[in-house]
Amino acid sequence: MTVQHLLDVVTAVLLFALVRRSDLGRRLALIPAAYVLLSGEHLFLGHALLT
Questions:
Q1: CA–CA gap between residue 44 and residue 46 (Å, rounded)
Q2: I need a surface site. Which of 4, 28, 41, 43 has the fewest CB within 10 A?
Q3: What is the pLDDT along the chain (51 residues), one digit of tens a residue?
C-alpha cells in the first residue's frame, strides 16, 4: 500500500467521522466516504502520481 492509498483511506475515515458526528446517521455518512474510496478521479490521480 502506498502513501497515496493511505491518504485516501484516512480522508474517507475523516469524512465518515465528520458526517457521523453531525448526527446524520451511518448510512448517510457512508456516501462521502464511498465517493473518496471509489471515485475514478482519486484512483486516476493516485496512479498518475506514481507513474
A1: 5
A2: 41
A3: 577 778 888 888 999 999 988 888 888 888 888 888 888 776 677 667 666
- The alpha carbons of the chain give a radius of gyration, in whole angstroms, of 12
Q: What is the C-alpha separation between 27 and 42, in angstroms, rounded?
A: 22
Q: Are 36 and 42 in contact (CB under 8 A)?
A: yes
pTM: 0.71
Query: Rounded to 5 degrees, what angle do the CA atoms 37, 41, 45 make?
Result: 100
